[in-house]
Structures are given as structure tokens and as C-alpha cells.
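note to self — DONT lose this again. spent like an hour looking for the file last time. sequence + predicted structure for the chain T wanted, 583 res
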Amino acid sequence: MSNTQIELSSTNFDDIETSLIDWLKSRPEWAEYDFTIPGSASALLIDICSAIAYKQNVQSNFALNERFLNTARLRSNILRRSKELNYTTQSPVAASAILRLKFTPEGNPDFVIIPSGTRFQANGTDKTFTFTALATSTAMKEDEYVVDIEVVQGDYLTYEWTVEQNQKFFVIPNPNVDMSRLKVNVKYTSADVFWTEYTKSQNIVENDPSSTVYYEEEINGQMFRIYFGDDVISKAIVPGNIVKVDYLVTDGEDANNILSFQLLDELDYEPTVEVIQASNGGKAIEEIDSIKRYAPLGFYSQNRAVTANDYKYIIKSRFPQISSVNAWGGEDNTPPLFGRVCVSAMTAGNYVLSDNLKNEIAAVFDDNKIIGSKRISWFDPVIIQILTNMKIFYNQSFTNEASSTLKVLVQSSLLEYQKQINEFQSTFNYSDFLSFIKSLDRSFIDVICNLALNYSYAIDDFTEQQNISLILNNALEAGSLISSKYYNDTSMLVYLKDDKNGIINEYTMSDQNEVVTQFNIGTINYSTGHISINNLKVKALFQSDTLDIQATPVEYNVVSEYQNVFNLNPTKSQIEMVRKLVN
């Protein structure tokens, strides 16, 4: 009897086939037989057995992977795993804008009303969108008939159900619904005059049998449904009740960054429309990677605000317009802020939160009975641009496109790749980036790319001295820091550069030689990437709107920490197409 074991658990066909043949040859009666003769019955049977085992192993491997959140690939299975952690995925979010309406009515009325539902047309680069005012506003005479209103993008729809026997779930009959703006109302009988408003449940332990709340979840096809309690954790819905939902169907992030609006409906008087805040905050439905990242945080948090991850989860779950958020303890900040919680957040299309939104977020933690929960310090995101100096070799035999067309392809693709890293605590993986560039066209043979980290400093007042403090949180090469050119207080064209010893000086060019115009104007810590520049005098900028400061990282796999957010800037990056003829 042979002691050789058949290894059938592999997901490699050749390994299974080899194991099966070895097992057969270990038996004395088959020891001298050749099972690999092409076309033989034995070779055919072995191939069939190996193929059956291979397919079963692959299917079992996929099925096992789909049972765990980290390894699942199908969205339906990820939703099941996240629901086990009591996590609700985020729906698409409608972009919003602030418009200022100015009226010049005849007869000097006391006010002009802009009713809810008033629509505006927003003109994007290649598409128009409809924005709607969800609240009634009034332009008062004493305010010179000027009023600021918020408009949100999308079509506002209504749907009703008469509850049937054993009906528990109510599927909203449209995809791309902004669930953060969902309104749910219930009539207990058809004879009722008034509707009872139901609100989304935020914390199940705060509910009681009389709580008029609803629950929501994503289902297949990226649709959403709502359901209600059972008269134990919250008020139940019974047959004969009428459930009504008012909801917004939106285009999400496509409607961000629009500055052109015009009135679509008729009002009593025609206003002039001024854009106070461009459209922003629009988001697509939550992506798989985001669900995998935040679902465990929600389970660990349990609606407490103790750790930094608790703050990130609560902000992200309560405010779906937040596209990315980071939080860290004040003791880890530079300089330290002991006893504080440092928070930086951004919405899609806008890197700076409004004061109103910051106050709304802080109010959530005011209700959280945790020591220190009110001690939030806000930090606006710091945009760190990754500049790519690329030389792309391509085989002209594999493409009919001109080098200029291929270059435009690369430039536009940089903005697409940016979506992967344009968030807090992201990593720019150098090898992945090179693979991405090479995959853009079959003619691309090789890519050589040098990186630099760039910070664009905006100067608001040229009469004052500038003090710049920047922490790149990545090790930098000594002697690599350089700034864009500017005119100093003596009208000399100068630039900043480090001396490889941690000191930043101001230089100018004279007879093709570098001459120091001011010593020790700042310092640089090469280990942490901390750049500090003090009392900088800038009279005017040279061929730029900002003072750019860039340096080369030691490692090309760079990470964004704290309030830093990565951005790719095709206009400041260099792309050289090199034609190669390869047989």
C-alpha cells in the first residue's frame, strides 16, 4: 500500500495533475506506466479528474473569501458582512451650491418669496444639471431684496405605499438616491389629515417603543430600502398605514465645481444670480474599499468618542457629504495640543469645510458624554502635489497616434489616478503608478519617473512678511528643496534653496552663478520633512500665482499623514514621449 497522498487542494491545475500522477506511480502495479502519453486514455482521464478538482478548489476558495469582509470582492457579499457589523453604507450625495439672488421688483413690495422646489440650471463643462431649492426663502425689502439660498442637484421625487400584510421593507424605486436628504412620513389611516415624520435612527439604544424612526440599508443593484421597528426597539408599521418618501435622485460628484447658474422656473420677479459658493460635496455611492475601512471602525466605536478612529467613524457616518476625514490626538500634533482632538476633513470638490458644517459636526460630540469630546481643534487640509517628471518610451509600430496625442492621454489619466490617493492617510505606491501608466496604451514600452513633493503657498498680502510652516511627513533628500522665483523687497529676482545641511537660504543668479542674497531664512528637517521659513519678504511673484516649494522624497512610496492630502498636478508635471522602434 502506498503512503503517497494525493494533493487535491491546490488551485493550480499542473500541481493537481502532477500529484495525481505521482500517487498512481507510487502503486506497484502502475510504477512503470507512462501517464503522460498524448492522446492516451489514461492521460485524458487524469486531465478530467484534475480539471474537476481544480474547478472545485477555485470555487471553494472564492466562496471562502467572500465570507470575510477583508477578502470579499462582490459588493453584495460585502454588504452582508458590513451589516453584521451594524454598518450602513453611504448613498450617493447631491452636490450643493450657495446662490445670491438680487431682485429689483416694481412697486417696492415688503418681500419676494422664492418657494421650495424652485429650479436652477447649472452649466457644467459638457453637461447641464438641475439644482433645486429645498426650502422656501424670502428676499426682504430691508435687505434690498437680496437673499442667499442653498440649492442641491437632482430631481426631487415622491413615492407612497399602502402597507400590506407582512410587508416589512420598502424599496425606493430609483437608483442614485441621496439618502441623507430622504424624508419619511407616515399616515396611520387614509382618513388622517396630518403626516407623522419619521427620522433616521442614529443609535438603537436611544430608541423606545414609541420612537418614530426608520432604518435604511443598501440592497442589490445599489438600491436602498427602509424598514421600521417592531414596537420594542421603535414604533412599528402595520397594514393600512401609508408610508410616503420624498427623495432626491442625483448625479453625485459629476455636478461638482460648477460656477454658472441660471433660473429655470418663473418667479414673480426675475433675479440676477450670483454664485457665492460653487457646487461641491457631490459624491458617488460609497466604494468597496471605503466600506471595508469604515465598517470595522463602526463596530469598534459603538457610538463612543474615545479614540481617534471613533471620531473618524462618527463624522463619516453622520455627515455623508464628508468624502474623507482624519483625526489624531493632540499629543501627536506638531506643536502638541494636549487634551485636544485634532480633526481635518473635506467634502468632494471642496477642501475647506464651512464654519456652519464644522459647528454641526461639533454639536454631535456635544451630545456625547465623553470627557474631552468637545475639545476639537480643526485643521484645514494641506494639499501636497506629487509632481511626476516622466520619460515614456513607446513603440511607434503599435500605435497610429501622434506623440502629442499620447501625451494628452497621460495627462488626463493623471487626474483619474488622483482619485485613488486624494484622501487622508493615503499611500502613493510608485510601482503601482508605473504599472498604471504603462497600461494606458499597448505601445508604451517603459516609463522612467522622478518624483517631487510640491506645496503651493498663496500670498494674500504682499506688504507683510510671510511665515511658512509645512510638514511633509516624508524623509527628504538633502539639497533637493527649491522654490519658484519671486521678487524680494529689493526687487531682485530670487528663489529659495537648502544648503544640504538643513539651512534654507535665498539665492539669485549672477553671471550664471548662484549668489546668496540672504542667509538662514529657514530650516528643513530632512527626516520628518518639516520646513520652516520665517520673515520672508515677497514683493511680487514671477510667472506664477503661488510660491511653490518642492523637494524630492527619499522613498518614492510616499504617505500622507495628519492633515496632508495628495494631489497630482499635470500642469506642473513634465511628460516626455520618446519614440522607439522595436522589432
